[in-house]
Amino acid sequence: MTETGIDPRGPRFGAAVMAGLLVVTLLLGAGPAATAALAVAALLFALGAARGAQGSLQGMVFARWVRPRLRPTSEREDPRPPRFAQVVGLVITGTGVVLGVLGLDAAVPVAAGVALVAAFLNAAFGFCLGCEMYVLGRRVLHRA
Amino acid sequence: MARRPTPLPPTVDLVTRAALVAALLLVSALTWWALTRRASRFRPARHDGRALLTAQQLGSPLGTRATLVQLSAATCSTCPRVAAVLSSTAASLPGVQHVELRVEERMDLVERYGVLRTPTVLLLDADGGLASRMSGPLDSDTARTAIDAVTRTAAPRRTAPTAGESLD
Question: Less crowded by CB within 10 Å, the N or C end of chain B?
Fold first, then answer.
């Protein structure tokens, strides 16, 4: 279908990296350190949202160091679904960072928790955010 | 986190947070497992069979025995795999059609059938009545079993649709 499919294991690896970072964020609780950790997560999501999951930092780490160690696969996936997930991740973590900076400390662990659930399910079970959220978003827009 | 008058020692706090994170991951994994397991089975439609979908409404001819209507999205990584499974399954069974539609183009069907996620597969009987539905990843055996169930019970259950009927 698309001329440039990507290795589906790349986004899963990236999700595992993000899940680790978000666990660290949650362990830091609420405060400047947690907000900074969530800001790093938002930055990584922003890169993935702008360039696609394969162009994110974790995607490049996968291509450079992880993929050569894995068995080659001919399986390819459309890059749009993982990119959509990066955009959603950016919105969630970005909102948490902004609210945290504005003084609402509790928003940081809440945003980190929501993003962690999605990243963890993606890494562990292949959860596809674009499968779950796109129709709901469309329905909301359709009603409005 | 609320400011406590007497904060817990940092190590205790860290253990509490780690336990909360572990609980969050466990609950989300179990919830996800339960929800997808339920959704991935073809289950009988709750809609009653009176609201038939016509070929005109579908925008594509109905299969003479059954039609698989797949609602997909560009953001859905599972959709192309399910489309490949369903189109080859339909091709191997006479009278069975597979129709893949984009949700953004068919919000009428999304609303009508209460579609919440992609891919959602609606299995229509020969008359265009919704027999069963599922969502998520799908293998050809599951699809075949569901199609068999529909075509076996597809005997003259209803009177033939008259022209212009099945308006919602």
Answer: C
Instruction: Write out the residue range of the structural domain in which residue A20 sits.
Output: 9-143
Chain A residues closer than 8 Å to B103 by CB: 134-135, 138
Confidence of residue B10 (pLDDT cuts 50, 70, 90): low
What CATH number should be reported for the domain holding residue B95?
3.40.30.10
**Does residue B61 share a domain with residue B98?**
yes
The Cα–Cα gap between A81 and B79 comes to 10
Asked if the Cβ–Cβ distance from A78 to B17 is below 8 Å, we say: no
ipTM field: 0.90
Task: Find the DSSP H helices in chain B.
Answer: 10-39, 55-58, 79-92, 107-112, 140-152
Q: In terms of domains, do B70 and B108 share one? A: yes
Confidence at B2, pLDDT banded by 50, 70, 90:
low
Nearest CA in chain A to B16: A27
pLDDT digits (tens, 9 = 90+) for A10-69: 999 999 999 999 999 999 999 999 999 999 999 999 999 999 999 999 999 999 999 999
The whole-number pLDDT of residue A4 equals 75
Give me the numbers of helices (H) and strands (E) for chain A, helices first please: 6, 0
Q: How many domains does chain B have?
A: 2
Residue B28, in any domain of the structure: yes
* Same domain membership, residue B133 and residue B71: yes
Selected for mutation to probe chain A from B4, B15, B21, B27 (highest A CB count within 10 Å) is B21
| A116–B25 CB contact, under 8 Å | yes
The residue in chain B having the minimum alpha-carbon distance to the alpha carbon of residue A81 is B75
